[in-house]
Amino acid sequence: MTTKIKVLVAGAEGRMGREVVRAVTAESDMEVVGAFDMKGVGEDIGLDAGVGALDVAVSDNLADILKTAKPKVMVDFAVANGFEKRAMAALDAGVRLVVGTTGVGEKSMKKIADKAATRKLGVLVAPNFAIGAVLMMQFAAEAAKHMKGVEIIELHHDAKVDAPSGTAVATAERVMAARKGMPGHADPTKFEKLKGARGGRLGDISIHSVRLPGFLASQEVIMGTQGQTLTIRHDTISREAFMPGVVLAVRRIMKKRSFVFGLENLL
Ligand SMILES: NC(=O)c1ccc[n+]([C@@H]2O[C@H](COP(=O)([O-])OP(=O)(O)OC[C@H]3O[C@@H](n4cnc5c(N)ncnc54)[C@H](O)[C@@H]3O)[C@@H](O)[C@H]2O)c1
Question: Which is the CATH superfamily of the domain at 131-236?
Fold first, then answer.
């Protein structure tokens, strides 16, 4: 009998965290052994996630969970605040990471990548675990080699606290890398009558963030050149969209010994 991969979920009581608890519990080769959150402390995470009792109580003491539950992988869908501390504690305890939390700064990422290399432990950070979104980024990078002007509109639910989305930033970075020094699109705007009207700029790419009830996570990459535009759009209809990517990452990260950015590099 093979042993199941022991998973700790950070941000377990959140919308994504509970979805992860359901997805991991549905797989035969992995199990939830720990649930870290400030909310719902003492409650059985299985009951809260709707999969029946798992005998795993939510705890706000990460050090204690790492010591007693002995997880192999921590899946983190929480908030950027405190992420570096959580990640470092997990790596120090020999625990690999699968990270969906967005808004984490570059400095923190670098520290975590260095620690992963030193400890020879796999870490996956993915701005988007939905396969359709990964393809959208790949297609956008390919198209941008031929179409100079690129702008991104990302549309999310009204409880998202960071902007722009990690996916929008990752898309812009991939587009710029694919162009390899090709001149970008010059912004013609001379007077911005309303500050921010042209969105946030990453290089020559404008990113516009929409936050409204009704949306979950959508993104449009709009490209323009003489006489034509091309729009690549991805819509996440439900949070289940992220789960095949998360489950795959939990399995594959067990065999990695360093930092990996982007689900496409684990497929
Ligand atoms: N990479 C992806 O594919 C992807 C997809 C969806 C959401 N996300 C990201 O996942 C994160 C969670 O999203 P959500 O919609 O579930 O949010 P949410 O607000 O529903 O859940 C966040 C949970 O984290 C908990 N939390 C807050 N601070 C914490 C801390 N310091 N330590 C541990 N837990 C803490 C909260 O109590 C809450 O239960 C966000 O960063 C979001 O942008 C990523």
Answer: Dihydrodipicolinate Reductase; domain 2 (3.30.360.10)
Asked, as a colleague might, if the bond just before 183 is cis with ω within 30 of 0, I would say no
Task: Assess whether 148 carries a catalytic annotation.
Answer: no
Choosing from 72, 115, 156, 256, the catalytic residue is 156
Which tens digit of pLDDT belongs to each residue from 27-65?
999 999 999 999 999 999 999 999 999 999 999 999 999
**Catalytic-residue membership of 146:** no
Ligand 1 centroid distance, CA of 10 (Å): 8
pTM: 0.88
